[in-house]
Design a protein that fits this description.
Structural class: mainly alpha
Distance between the termini: 57 Å
Number of helices: 8
Shape: elongated
Order of helices and strands: HHHHHHHH
Helix content: over 70%
Largest sheet: none
């Protein structure tokens, strides 16, 4: 069974939530400023919510899968190289240790004291990590990433739409903006739990960055509304 830690899905959670909140706020405000009625706003927002969730989750799945495929290809290539020319691989690993700050004597001591440095699996994992820039243990799981992205985008997208279902259009536009700002700030606070940064600065950063797209959507709707 795959053990899922929140730290493993925080990127997709933040990405999906922020994109859902901001893109749908920009859309519903754009339709609102363009003199759209509640039904048109809800319809446009709902279509964007589900289309965006499927699109984002598909993108997350494919990008994670591509990363795994690159890593797996490097593993196979390195294994083949180890079989064909093991001496070259060991020399490359020793050179890499020296580039990282160890002198030749220290490297020799390492190789003499521990047999793991001569073990093909260790050599393979080390060389692949140097080439790809990530260890096998840190690779993402495509299906898990896709599910996380799908539901976080849906959740984020629902905040800007919800007020238009229950209250008048004018009041809903203000409420939608306020809800989105609160959700963005809350998301920044949640992120700070894992990054250990100041919660207020983290929340404010997400709000300021996220609202940029909302403002753009508002201005676009304002411009087209006067055509």
């Amino acid at each position: 069974m795959i053990q899922t830690d929140m730290k493993d899905v925080i990127r997709d959670f933040v990405f999906g939530m922020e994109d859902g909140l901001v893109s749908n706020l920009g859309l519903v405000l754009g339709v609102y400023i363009g003199h759209g009625e509640a039904y048109a706003i809800i319809l446009a927002g709902s279509a964007s919510m589900f289309a965006g969730a499927f699109s984002m989750s598909a993108g997350s799945y494919l990008s994670s899968k591509s990363q795994r495929e690159v890593y797996e290809h490097e593993i196979e290539s390195t294994k083949k190289e180890l079989i064909d020319n093991p001496k070259k691989c060991y020399i490359e690993m020793r050179s890499s240790f020296i580039k990282e700050g160890l002198d030749k004597k220290q490297v020799d001591v390492l190789f003499k004291k521990s047999s793991k440095y001569w073990h093909p699996e260790f050599v393979c994992n080390y060389m692949v990590q140097k080439k790809v820039g990530i260890s096998k243990e840190k690779l993402e799981i495509p299906f898990r990433n896709a599910i996380g992205m799908f539901f976080s985008f849906l959740l984020g997208s629902s905040f800007p739409i919800a007020p238009f279902i229950f209250i008048s259009v004018d009041a809903a536009a203000i409420t939608s903006s306020a809800l989105t700002i609160c959700a963005l700030f809350g998301m920044g606070m949640a992120k700070a739990k894992f990054t250990k940064l100041n919660w207020f600065k983290s929340g404010l950063e997400v709000v300021l960055i996220g609202l940029g797209a909302g403002v753009i959507g508002y201005l676009v709707g304002l411009a087209f509304g006067h055509l």
